[in-house]
């Protein structure tokens, strides 16, 4: 059986309990044949000191973890500049926040070339190479240029924008041409797959063959939607552990007279946090029976604090929280409990289970696993209700959530009111169907589906 090689910007030790479901799933796949996980070490060195690109290797069971250090200037251009200053905003439909600095794309290409140079000597001829996310789009092309002929797959964890937005990126032709160096492309949703097909048809005049095979630039690539899931059993075991049970008991004691709503997000403009708070304020205004009752716990974990757009977002959220609490709060009740810090993953199942409603309302999201974790954490006898943005990739699979347009303040408030007052029988039926879907398409299904597709016979030349 072929060895699996996983490449991502950052790596994780799959043996550690703090590793998330994705790390566990990839780790189990790697361990099956003895694999290699390659990526950035997380360390930067001063340019010119000679430490950049140094390769470190360690063993994690029968998996090799291989990392490289980056020069500070390269990291700033590749990660902060191009990956998160261009690709992230454009792929989340925010052209207005993209900074098209030519020096950044040079750094992005330089780091991908460095990764290829360090990875190529570690590869065996029959390895399967699985490359992850927007940081590493051109990596396969760089490996091909070095003579690597292994089967290579790429999975995009964030959404792919519509063709016209993608075409707004300077050198977008080069970026998409790089994708044709892969044998298999994986996207989170059918919407992303449609966007890819329309782009390559309109911009590259690609030929669309059977089984979602596209031929262009002298190569053929298969593209398919592989919606990522969670490890349901692992997350439910986490919910039975002491930390989660302690959190559940604390929430039920402290909020015994309240109905909890919960939002758990990174501090990011794609998450729709100001729109969510405005919808909650509208709920309190239009449905006054929720005053002194409904409490929103909004966790917004710090993210890229040095970027102006994130600092502006934080100020806006703090202002909205203060305005809502000032307008509606009482001595013994604050409508919004806002936390600008992360909550340990081991405590989240308890928080989810204590909540009557989860508000997962991003403006655009590749998948959003919080929605799936909330469902997995629920008490099937008395489950909470998921209010989910139609613009999250998860919406394609989770039609039994209450799907909303996060830009429509009134509609989100109405859906939240419906969720708070949904009859028990309906809540149980919706939760049962959602949970069945999570189990059928969990993270292990996702991993198997992608790797099975990657090992299909090579594509014929165009």
The CATH homologous superfamily of the largest domain is named: Glycogen Phosphorylase B
Number of E-type strands: 16
Approximately how much helix is present in the residues?
A: 40-55%
Rounded radius of gyration (Å): 23 Å
Sheet with most strands: strand arrangement:
3-4-2-1-5-6-7-10-9-8
Uncertain runs are none
SS field, number of helical segments:
16
Q: Look up the CATH topology of the largest domain.
A: Rossmann fold
Proportion of strand residues: 15-25%
What gap, in angstroms, lies between the N and C termini?
Answer: 28 Å
Q: Using the coordinates above, name the CATH class of the largest domain.
A: Alpha Beta
Average pLDDT rating:
93
- Return the domain count: 2
Which shape, going by the Cα principal axes?
Answer: globular
CATH architecture of the largest domain: 3-Layer(aba) Sandwich
Task: Give the biggest sheet.
Answer: 10 strands, mixed
User: From the helix content, strand content and strand pairing, which structural class follows?
Assistant: alpha/beta
